[in-house]
Request: fold
Amino acid sequence: MTLVWFTAGVVLAGLLGVYLPWSAWLLPAGLGCLALGLGLMGLKRWPAARRVLFGAAALVWLVGYGAVMEAPAQAMEYRTLRLEGVVTQWPEETDYGVRVPVKAGEEGGRKVPTLFYGDERLAGLRPGDKLSSVAYCTPADKVRGRESLYYPAKGVLLKAKGYGEAAVTPGPAFSLRYAPAILAGKIRQEISRLYPPEEAGFLCALLTGEKAGLDEGTQNHLNRVGLGHVVVVSGLHVSCLVGFLTLFLDPKKKGSLAALLVVLALFCLMTGSGPGTVRATILCALALVAPRLGRDYHPLTGLCFALLVLLAVNPYAVANAGLQFSFLATLGILLFGRRWSRGWLEKLPKAWRRWAKPLVGVAAISLGAMVFTVPLSALYFGRFSLLAPLSNLLTAWSVTLAFVGGAASVAVGAVCPPLGQGLAALVGLPIRFFLWYAEKASRLSLAAVELGQGYYALWALFVYGLVVLYLLAPGKGKRPILPVCAGVATLCLSALLTAQTAAREDLALTVLDVGQGQSIVVQSAGVRALIDCGGSLDPGDRAATYLQSQGRSTLDLLILTHFHEDHAGGVPELLDRVKVGAIAMPDIDRDSPLRQAIEAKAAQQGIPIYSITENTRAELGQAQLTLYRPVESGKDSNEKCLSVLCAKDGWETLITGDMPAEEETLLAAREDLPHAEVLVAGHHGSKYATGEKLLAAVTPESVVISVGYNSYGHPAPETLARIQEAGAEVYRTDWHGGVTVRAP
Reply:
């Protein structure tokens, strides 16, 4: 337990040091903890407290890391300079070119981990190549304009935007340092040659940790059903690798043990040395080496050692979400999963145990991993998967076959292509099953729930209370059947109450937080419509999950104001997840690829489409929707978009899409718009929308702005000033999250 308490002190100090904004206290606090720990050395009491204090002295290392690593990066921030570096990983495609991980700095200066952004001409770079370019450097601790530890937690300290043509010097034909990264690239190329695109994308993620080949919809499906961990290289993959290799290599023999350790280290480096991979590699290595040294292997001690190694390399890794999920999942498995597995097997007849052991083990491990990760998932994502234990139980076999078979097909294909293609055809079967299951299961209404919606947060607190009481209850023969039944019953009750609450709404609108975009749920008496589905934050997934958390995977009406990505980009995924009754949209942009994709998917699913060329009134439960035809003078999509009025007994909300102020004026003159209690600001608060004439015409009491991080300056100060002058309150999704308004 000595290492456990010490690690607890390190983690606590790291969390405080990384998350608290003021850093002047770090050095004195670290030295103080060290001094206090030394002062308690002579006392026999409080050994745990003494070890925690020694661990907390890691604050001193946090200061040292800042001086050694961060200071050189800070010296280059907000400067345009000649940057020189070495490519450390393969380039990644972006919307505007490529992003290249490099270790770079000024000539003669210290090199730091950097993300270099350049044009598509750099797509051919490979690890080991040297790069020289004029670049503007910015801190890596900002994502979408906000302070974030995302990149520092991954060890990236600087971002650089290249200008002009970069000078590239090819690296050596073979470099031991970059051989793992180059090998990973070769494996991905071979996978792409052997497998169809969808299967190749999954297998690349499974074998090398590269998820670029997985489309956003597939990743959302996996996360929703609790299988997202499969495409993040970690303990599952290392266990499969070691299990397969030990069929041929006996770890009791020195040569075989050395070979196993080399392959483990190579796999870890090849897949990017993520926290989960490093943790699993260290634990497996310790488990293999301990018997050779005549020592007992203690998994909890090994887990602590692995965590200390990662934090010694980068103390900011304590803020890495991948590290947090990986270690907390493993901790839950060690503390509960293995014990539950043994206990459940003992309750089965002896004749069943041999066959039931794999199934019981998967179920217990999955539930054990969720004990600590569910609260973390709720903190980061506001949701968690209810289907995760069942998903892991049903797909574990396919993942194992895909991993082992995929690796074998790549190796065989490199030597004998025809034989590799034949093996790939067989391996494609479990891959297709896995992807098929994820897609179909994600359509289930309660596959995952949003804790911020309905009564699910109360249910989660209740379940955790049951778990605590069960663990603290005395006695060895405790039966879990009662708390399990109580948890299931209260889940059903929570879902029923959430659905009934939504069904009783006279008229409610929820402006979802989809980043820079718009997606608005309108519901009345259990009938639901969605106005637009686009944005920068997984709009299709967010809209579908919101609707499904109410207990139904159906949507009565989808209304699209126009076909820009920030208003309709999430529709294809939405249609995959939710059964839509009908689609209403303007008859514009017939050549738009997005419109054509939506129409094709709607035709495939038999969804009727209504083109709005005249004002159209639709009943929505106890409310009424008025779809105003586009203003005829408009020329582009924004000017020709639909407007929607939602009304119930004299209470109205007006939505104008991206309509500019000039067209707003024409709309107000043409339609004699009523007073609206709520106005959804046009074009995300652009200075060219939500004009004075519209504000004067509808005199809103509240204005909701659907907006996220953007480079357009939305919402514009001019727009905010106009709204303030009109006397309306402002609610913004980038500040308040999803905004719900209800008719009285």
Q: What stands out?
A: The radius of gyration is 28 Å. The longest helix spans residues 350-381. DSSP finds 26 helices and 26 strands in the chain. The chain has a mean pLDDT of 91.
